[in-house]
Specification:
Length: about 120
Amino acid sequence: MQKLLIPIQGSYVAPRFDLATEVLVARIERGKIIGEPRTIIMERPSDEGLCQMIVEENITDVVCGGIEELHYNFLSWKKVCVLDGIIADWQTALDKALAGKLRQGDILLSSEDAEMKL
């Protein structure tokens, strides 16, 4: 079983890991979400607090926007798979992650965004 964490801001992946005050946590088994993803509101932005939560919650995967190298290296050392540089709404990022098609640095348009460009 995997546990995926996405720092979010509104309906988007938070642009900066260290400024996120809200995170989405989803349990995943065989490419499917188990139960309802939960949202956790943090008291204040804290990169150390977020790293601590990731370790305590046994998170296996993190999808985020920008992250400092220090925190990226710490999470990698803790065997957490970090996909950073993601620019997308969190639902699109979650769907791509579930499908195994999310890659580091992906910039994804939601179907709503794509319609607006037409």
